[in-house]
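Hello forum,

I keep getting stuck at the same step: I have a sequence, I want structure tokens, and every attempt I make locally crashes halfway through. Rather than fight my setup again tonight, could one of you with a working pipeline run this one for me? It's a single chain of 1075 residues.
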Amino acid sequence: MGKIAIPTGDGANIIVIATTDDNNNNNDDDDDDVDDLLGLFLRTNDNAPRLDSSIWDFLTLRDLYQLRSVSKSTYSSLEMVEYNRCRDGKDYLVPFPSFPAILGTTEDIKNGAGLFTHQLASLRAMIRAENNNTSFGALRGGILGDAPGLGKTITMLALIANTSGLRPIEPKEFYDNDSIDEHWKLMRTNPVFRTEILKALRPFRDCYHHQYAALAEDVSPPYEDDRFPTLASFERHVNKCMVRRVSQAKLDLFRRNVVSFKAGLDKRNRRFFANDKGKRMVFERNLLPCSATLVVVPDALLEHWAEQMRRHVNLGVFADDTKDISSSRNESTSNSCGSGVAYIDGVGDLSSARFPLNHGQMSILSAFDLMGYAIVVMPFSRIKQQYAHARKRQREEDPNDVSSDGSSEAYISSSPLLQLRWFRIVVDEGHELGENDAGSDVTNFVNRMGAERRWVMSGTPTTGDEDDQKFTSKGLDQLQRLLLFLRHERYGTLPEPTERILRRRGSREQAKSAWAADVKKPFLKKQYDGREKLYRVLDEVMVMHKKEDIGLPKPIFKQSEVSVPVPPHIQSIIIDAVLSKDIDPPSILRNLGIMHRRHMHHAFDVGGSTLFDALVSEYLHTDNFQMKVDEAQANFIANEIKKERLELENRGGALLDGVTALTAATDLAKNFVDRRPIKAVVYSNSHNNLLDVAEYLYGSFDSENIAEMMEGKIEHMSYELGRFRNNYKEGKNCPICGGWNDYTGKKLTSCSNGLVEVSDKDGNTYLVEKERIVRAVSEVEFNSLDARIAFGNPVDIDRLEGAPLTKYGPSPTKYWRVGDCLLIDARDPHPLLQKRWSEEKWAAYGSATCVELAESDGFEGRDNYLGELPNHPDGDVREVVVKLRKWQPCGRFHSRPRWDMRRKQNVGWYTGPTLEDVEMLTQKEDTFLLLLDASLSHGLDLSFVTHMYLLEPIDDAAHMEQVTSRAHRLGCTGPVTIETIHTWHQLDTNAKHVAKQVASTLEDETDESKKRTSTAICDHCYRSFANLGLAKEHELTCDRNPNGNAIVDPFHLSSVYRDIRPPAPMIVGVPGTNQ
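Reply #2:
Ran it on my machine without issues. Output:
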């Protein structure tokens, strides 16, 4: 007997015990042992020819896994394999076949990447949770509750890789065939049952009428004695008749209808079929089983999952090819590069996807296409859409109508997601299932889908402020909804197995009542029996690690104050209103910009301090003052970033390569010098506040310095994250105008750069680029121009809202008006623009047709071309006065010929090259600032970020932890600074004197004593406190501080979470010891 370690190429070794027989006792070397091992798999008897050891050059892990073993004991010896790529340098035994392809891309192998110890421990617990009870309907899964930033995505991908290729266990055969045969014999001779037969045939009703009519007549009872003696013979006959006439989907629906028909004939099991488990078993037995894992994610995380798989999963391991797609980072890869493994909704096969993601409104794939993938990723928006479609169909149909197309059974016309029995369903940021009522769109739809295994991924399974008195009560309700999804035996019973998507209560209410009686009410009454039951349930379903278990470097929390002076004239208005006896309230409120005036009447009647406080408070909420707040915050952020970048230059500049991830706080003590590139995030819970601050930030930085995640479109988020992460953007230069077109995920077909059509005094009408606009002509300048060249209408300066006339070209087109008088630079070539094509070249591309179309429309249509600039009388003159006629994208001026269905005529004329004909280019950028909306932040991996600026304080500890964990997470290369910006209004000395004189109760929020009481945050639990002293005092007793003396309320939900210990780690040893 010998121990053999067989390398698998993904960091794992198969540890087997090879036993040689008597005929091979003389073979003592390792090669002979290897051959003997292969012989156990490949030889059918001892006399079969031996294999040369070179077979290992061709045998892969997947091949070995699929080989049949003649010995059960030999196969059992492969249950555990050795994983030698853990980040701590130790080797661990993991379940066969390890985690093939995970962190197995070329870049990962080069960097020595591997799973962390806590990830291996989580995987051990997750695999055990999926296999503790393998009976149908059992809870197989749970909640992956590792703290935000601990690599849950990679952990889940590793679990998927470990079970890749496995299919869900088929529900047992539960029919009494004798009973079915008995009732079939009665039914086949009775014409009354014709309706039941026709219901089974409903999927075929949309065939040619005569074909369906002939089939219906052929199979309608009563039958002759020798026709269809059994239900199986009836099914075979129908399949034979229709196999070449209908799709496989309709044949499968017919099969499902027969199964339901069979259940109705089994009279002895009526009681079983009447309960929820029986109904669900019949329903899921009718679904198409597949080996795919469905991952349901918030829209903002679709790019995250695609990016993680592209960077850290070698898809070729699971496909028919072995090419590594990670090397094709920015190029569209062929379908042979790991194709058929991962499908991203709206994008397609991951192997052929281009980053940033080309996400579009694609139709969802059929069930038969989806079941061929190993991983299918669907965003919440698609789930909501499928829910809406299913609900609409349900309302429109009559389930008792035999002439219906069968949509009440919800197979052909329902969502493909409901047609499959998935191997596993994973909901990322799954706390959203608990936040909403169980009947919400996503929750209701996901609960209806069939799957053998189910997981919720959430670092914060229950959300809300832990200091809220209702936190525990709300959290218990959220947990019960998660248990409903997980199909907990008592507290999350199976939903009714109908595919009618509208809300049904029944078993859901029973589970909710049981949860309230067993857990919620006793726990809220502080009864230890309720706490013990809650702990047992959570300990059963939760796999969780906390950041204090891992030892990540702590984030640096800072509180900054920004004073915003109240304008002097506003203070004067308020002082006059308070001190003067003859006042006009409407005039005062109008001058202050206060719109809500009804409740101010009392303040004016009372006067004194009441009036002073009311006027100041109301002004602070006006749009005018909020604009000053936005500007002050933007200036503060801009100055801080510029200061940090300057300090980085003084330290020697940024290191773009060779920055390694920190794995523990002790790493900071190893002469750590922060040379990371400055990457900052501006975060806000208010979309409007973020937009307002962004407007001022663009005044301090160039557009290339700022990326935005403020819109919900997936392709936009992918593009902006790519810019921020990689410091470059992709796009194409238009061959016509030379303008740059960003590649944002959508295929580039037409140039979007704006061109301007102008005319001059000589009657020439032509196109110019916006860069040629020198300035707009004001009324004063227009009146001073020579009458021979004055043309068009002068531009009102007030229209530009303070922008100079020289900014007319770059300004938003909302300020433009047809007929504006402009001054343009008519040089060609222009120093900033490409030289224009000659008229001969334009003639070859159809300019004659363009001129004909333009003149026929009186130059009011869309047609014109970027031809040579006209020769003016003064040939050396560079600046020419013109009148603005219209503007539109270059691609719209130069459109290719096509038939316009709306206009019922041919449009377009251009036959030359367009964006489709030029190569994609990469353009370097210095993008160091990301504007992040709260609704799009959950789950993002921003481990490379160095600074986060919060525009408003966050009091919810769970929310604060989520925000911080976008950057404070595994893979971070240094500590992240989280800086909350507090704004304060500032009054001058005179206004303070008046406030004191009238005994104002409005606190002076610029007083130094007030600044010292600004909020501080606990480094361990992320709770906010009124001042730093209170925060430090709390840390001594913080229950998440491993060195603190915590006094814990055992009946606070957070205390139960903290009692759940991290799963035991995997260990190295002889196979069989790590069970």
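The mean pLDDT is 78. If your local run keeps crashing, start a new thread with the error log.
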